[in-house]
From TrEMBL:
Signal peptide: 1-20
Coiled coil regions, renumbered to chain: none
Organism of provenance: Aspergillus homomorphus (strain CBS 101889)
Source organism superkingdom: Eukaryota
Organism classification: Eukaryota, Fungi, Dikarya, Ascomycota, Pezizomycotina
FAD-binding PCMH-type domain span: 60-234
GO MF annotation list: FAD binding; oxidoreductase activity
Family to which the UniProt record says this protein belongs: Belongs to the oxygen-dependent FAD-linked oxidoreductase family.
One Pfam family from the record: FAD_binding_4
Keywords tagged on the record: FAD, Flavoprotein, Oxidoreductase, Signal
InterPro entries assigned to the protein according to its UniProt record, in alphabetical order: FAD-bd_PCMH (IPR016166), FAD-bd_PCMH-like_sf (IPR036318), FAD-bd_PCMH_sub2 (IPR016169), FAD-linked_Oxidoreductase (IPR050416), Oxid_FAD_bind_N (IPR006094)
Name of the featured protein: FAD-binding domain-containing protein
Amino acid sequence: MKASTALAPLLGLLPKATYGSNTTTTCCSALQATSLRDLVIFPSSIAYNESVTSYFAVNAQLRPSCIVQPHSAEEVSLAVSTLVKAGASQCKFAVRSGGHTTWAGAADIEQGITIDLSMMNSTTYHADKGMASILPGARWQSVYKALDAYGVTVPGGRGGPVGVGGFLIGGGNTFYTARVGFACDNIENFEVVLASGAIVNANRTSNPDLYKALKGGSINFGIVTKYDLKTISHDGLWGGLVVYDNSTTEQQISAAVNFVDNIHNDPYASWIGMWEYNSTTGQNIIADALEYTKPVAYPAPFSEFVGIENTTDTMRFATIYNLTQELVQATGYRDIFTTGTYRNDAKVLRKAIELHNNNIEKAKAAAKSVSWAMDTIIQPWPKLFWEHTVVNGGNVLGLDRFDENLVQVLYDYSWDDEQDDALFTHLGRTALNELDEYAKSIGSDNEYIYLNYADKSQSPLKGYGEENVQFISRVAKQYDPHGIFQTQVPGGFKISEVV
């Protein structure tokens, strides 16, 4: 596309690094021709490199032609309108909040523009409404810190550096899910910039279809620029990490199955089981994250886990901010997540750990990385989680069609050498495929895939069920009739690819 005469003077202001594509140079110039001019950054700047390198996974750190960092919904609207007007075939763009997804292109782009929401990161508490207004570029650690002064919190991410935006529109599993439902179920209102540039609110009475679709429907409708979440009284938690020898696996599996089947008896309890191998230490351990969402030590739901002999523990009374700092993953690595959901069945968990142990040996024999790690993470998905959904206005996750307790398995691999990309990607994907096949063979499979953990090779929206797929598709066409967020914004999981 040839640059217009009006844009020509601006081309001379662009760093040479952006001239690889005349199209994207024109797109960056179009942004610079607006009042966003000072918010557009290029590869030669410190701010650009800080943005690019702040993505969690090194393999997800792409280099767009330029980055725009809006500070308000109005500036997001102007950015979207400008890029859409410039043409869908020319100005492709990505949208980034926290940048925690592990696959390249989910929230960034090359030969395009990234709308980086990280400057929109404030949290405002409205005591009279029992609500917190949170902007999409915030990290959960900043949200918890801001709200702690008021003795309240919100159901959010369990790792402090995780971003708000993607987490919430992907569903959001939290320490509080058994008490109040998924994080998305606790959103009272979305402020959204549509492809047209219009800024709208979506809630139970205004744009109710969009409100429901955004609760799990991800980046298919527009850019959310503010989330209003219901708050929860917060007078502290009791929790921490308990580390065990790998030889306790069978005891852990028994405790896990019983915990999932009994969580409805005490929804204040949260458990995450992590089987972890680290090449630096050479140790293959088990670590349980036990969190009780009120300040009571050694509550009954944890009795089986507590009864297993451990090597160390950090159990304590703490704030949610403190506990979510403990679950922070190491940065500076290349990563892959692959995830599946299954019936709460001890046989499935044994198979998941067997595959974990087998892959460790395969990686030992072939990895070139100096430092690498393999984690198999098991989490409860009991039907109690989605029993809260209907009373909270519904969502599109589709879990309410299941009348059984489930568990989620996440294979989380990290490494430091690009030469190992193919190795660990293959190991992660094949482990999940083998687990899926095994679960299906014993009737313990389930089609749901948690979007926030899904690999690019997976199709989480399809796992929401046909009724929700059709609903998401209809709402996307209604609010984005020209399909801007299906084609001009190529990142993330697209409903058009399912339909």
